[in-house]
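Notebook, bench 3.
Goal today: get a predicted structure for Glutaminase from Yinghuangia soli so we can plan the truncation constructs. The sequence was checked against the plasmid map this morning, with no discrepancies at the termini. Length recorded as 450 residues. Pasting the sequence as submitted so the record is complete.
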Amino acid sequence: MDDPVTAALEELHGRLAVLRDGEVAAYIPQLALADPDAFGLALCSMAGHRYQAGEADLPFTIQSVSKPFVYALAVGDLGPQEMLRRVGAEPSGDSFNAVSLEPGTGRPANPMVNAGAIATTALVRAESPAERFGRILRVLSAFAGRELDVDEDVYASEARTGDRNRALAYLMRSAGSLDGDPDEAVDVYFRQCAVRVTAADLAVMAATLAGGGRNPVSGEQVVAEPDAVRTLAIMATCGMYDGAGQWLLDVGLPAKSGVAGGLIACSPGRFGVAVYSPPLNQAGNPVRGVAALTEMSARFGLHLMHKSGVHAATVTGAQRIERGGRSIAVVSAQGTLEFTEMEAVLRAVREVTPPVPGWVLLDLTAVTGVVAGQATALAAVLADLAARGHHVAVAAQQTFLAVARDRPVPWRRFTTRDQALAWCELGEPGEPGELGEPGELGEPGEPGVP
């Protein structure tokens, strides 16, 4: 019996395969040879589990679906501010191959239209065009979790018919927004677009972006999380060209399409999904892909603006107990602490902490994760309690609190609640906890520290 995810994909595939709207891209002659009936769906979860239906293993060229991944590479090379100075981030409202350059600067509107993608590709650091493409191919392969290659026939077809892209490159060169040889820049871009993938590959690639740049299958951190987040934002506003606004209204997920029939969408922190179906609508997006993702978003509540479902209570206990003549404030929490959950924890800590210096125990043994900003906020609150004379104990299986190594840790950390409670009841204020030596809680960004 199929699992529910595969069953859902197969049901969508069977029902939408009959759609006959759209046309296969023909402006690149080799793409016109694609089978219009080819249709594959694939999904990859944050746990690295993979699901598919239809022709999800059929190879095709990545085309414009390469743009977000190369953008993530380039922004890691240049940094976000320099990248923004060179390539904009505003939706153009134009088609993928439009002349979308900023008046006065010649800066492309965004990295998802062809002009911006060519400029972005040219910004990938390298000593030569061959080295630049080598880096691009390696990062695309790392996103996919396997070694990818180039469809030389499609590359040759694009090179023969790519005069408009060459014109864009020369126009940007004349405007000062493209450095180097325009022909070399466009040639690398043609090769990038001709990299061969499957829908199953694209699902893993999308999941890697959705997971903060970490490939859920290979475990490799392909790009830094801030670069993945920035890429998802660009995809959400610009990834579907002049259909981006309607897409965000109807589907509400960061996405990117390609003229060979590929389409990816990212559900941040949940999964990546991909579709292959060559017939395109007027905006250049796969007809069956748009229909499939629209249904999936509505059916499973995936829209970014959708209110999240009901969760278990974060704070599982908040009380002040008397032990050995001491007043001990105890707050217990569970699950993942994001903004809303952390607000509840901090409110509980404030409510039960005694007004005069006493003992505070924060039980995080059932907490599975703390997002970076909230880890810093919680550490600051505990440090403030210690500065006001409270003796603070933290029970946690992992290091969740973000502090710098060159600062003393003003609380004691234990691996169990019982150990922490025993210290609060019997320990001396100056005694070190079992794991509470200064600096042991690490720095933000280290393994185990959000």
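The longest strand covers residues 326-337. Confidence is low (pLDDT under 50) at residues 431-450.
Flagging this for group meeting.
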